[in-house]
Amino acid sequence: MRQTSTAPRNNKLKPSSNLIMNGSVRVRVIRTLLAIQNGQSLASVLDPLLNSLHDGDKGFAHALLLTTLRQWYALERLLDSLADNSIDEKEVRTTIQVGLTQLLYLQVADHAAIHETVEAAKEIEFAHATGLINAILRKVAKNPSKFRKKCDKKHSLPNWLAYQLKQDWSEQYDDLMQGLRQPAPMFLRVNTAVTSVEDYQQALVEFEVEADLVELTSGFNLPNSSDAAASNSIVTKGLRLHQSTAVNALPQFAEGAASVQDMHAQLAAPLIHSALLNKLTVKSDDADGDIDTNNNEIRILDACAAPGGKLAHWLELISSDESSLFHVKQDDAETSPVISKVKITAIDNEAPRIERIHTNLQRLNLSQHDLQQAEKNIELNIVCADATTWQGAGKKKSKLVFDAILLDSPCTATGVIRRHPDISILRTEEDVEQTALLQADILHNLWPQLKVGGYLLYVTCSILKQENVEQMQDFMTHYNNVAAVEFSDDCNWGIEQAIGRQCLPIDSESGDGFYYALLHKTAE
Q1: What's this model's pTM, rounded to 2 decimal places?
Q2: Residue 206 to residues 60, 201, 211, 247, 251: CA-CA distances in angstroms?
């Protein structure tokens, strides 16, 4: 999934990466936070920070950085209430917030938190502020529970974002504000082409890794479905670890037995795969269907596919479900071939992200070479292209190319703030409007390339309605050949919307904030 890249405006401070590589642990964390405020993403600065430290310091640095980011705006408001005069120097503010995090959230001993933070101010050449820093931290240290309650009382988001979420989710607002400040659980997707979820859970026990089985049930009312039970019974199984664990401590991870993927993200591939199977079943019973107009091939598209988690999941399902995909039952209970090959195209617009797709598929033994070696009737083509303009048919006359499209749409990623707390600093109110326009451009480019009877699954990791249900409502006003597929009451995840369903990251056991809408292309 491509995310919009944003940076704070009018900021001349440009910390270079080598600044992170020297100084005390706290100094390196402070410089990392300054880099993030200057527009660098957490993903780009976290590894340089951790790689520069001794193993014994990495855990503390990681906790200090992530916790400070999660509580960023709450700490800023507390700081403003504690200071007699406005503190304008970004370096000083950041240093104090790092000190406050230690006192309020990490239970670092008072003397260590205060002394080491004051020393850090000297190291970054802001010795003139050490008296102010010392005074504020000592005041908080006298009654940390009081100031912790003050910090936790309200949200820790920029005001524009909190206001919009209040408008979008008034009933869930209080829980959502607290949920976004907590660490997200770690989920695993098991490669069922290799092993079962239950067997892998048992393998984790042998590696002393505790995990709970999570089952999400999905259902939707597919048009013209010849098997209502099948179309309304999609069970997605995943594992939620009790504690986050390094992947090298997971059994057979390097061999592709499992992947780290949020539980709500694991819904995408089963949903679009089930819709695709419904299309094939319906067309096999329809004498006028177009299922075999292209040499008995079906073509599917994963748009904005990087880093490839949902693509890999879909490939796993196709590989394990090959018999039902290539054969459809007839009235006499026999099966007859209807498909000779599945052609999958995956596109993303950045070459480095394309490389990540290849790397992830290779680990899972799902590259084109692996598929050929396994004699799968699957052709995989990964293309670096802009989804707003790319045409799957090339110069061919007919632009009706795909039987199913998975659009993991660009978004502001507000639904994954728990995992990427830098998002609340990097995003601006203007980004939401720009992202919504980008989403619309992609939708309007891809929809004409979907065959009649085909399905498009629209997915975001946003919790803003402008990017989700409102985007779908606006899109549907432009076409008379689009129908929104209703999710049934069987779903045990998300909140029903006018179109689609919305997951919210409210509690410590839930998945991230994802939105799903399934669109069906009808005849003109």
Answers
A1: 0.91
A2: 28, 9, 12, 15, 9
3 state SS of 441:
helix
**Host H or E run for residue 344:** strand 341-348
Q: What is the pLDDT at residue 133?
A: 97
**Which residues are 380's β-sheet partners?**
344
Residues recognised as catalytic: 461
Q: What is the DSSP string of 276-311?
A: HHHHHHHHHT-TT--TTTTTTEEEEEEES-TT-HHH
Beta bridge partners of 414: none
Q: Identify any residues that bridge with 328 across adjacent strands, giving them in sequence order.
A: 336
User: Each residue of 439-491: pLDDT tens digit?
Assistant: 999 999 999 999 999 999 999 999 999 999 999 999 999 999 999 999 988 89
Q: What is the mean pLDDT of residues 338-350?
A: 87
d(CA 317, CA 420): 29
Determine the longest span between alpha carbons in the chain, in angstroms: 87
Confidence of residue 369 (pLDDT cuts 50, 70, 90): confident
Angle at which helices 130-142 and 90-104 cross, to 10°: 20
Q: Give the separation between CA 184 and CA 418, rounded to whole angstroms.
A: 6
> Quick one: which of 152, 168, 238, 184 has its CA closest to 416?
184
Q: Is residue 328 pLDDT above 80, yes or no?
A: no
Distance from CA of residue 377 to its chain's centroid? 30
How would you label 297-312 residue by residue, b for 16+ Cβ within 10 Å and e otherwise?
bbbbbbbbbbbbbbbb
CB distance 335 to 328 below 8 Å: yes
Strands in 134-290 per DSSP E: 187-190, 211-218, 234-241, 258-260
Strands in 219-257 per DSSP E: 234-241
Please report the sign of the dihedral spanned by the C-alpha atoms of residue 223, residue 229, residue 230, residue 231: positive
Q: What is the pLDDT of residues 108-146, one digit of tens each?
A: 999 999 999 999 999 999 999 999 999 999 999 999 999
Distance CA 334, CA 330 (A): 6
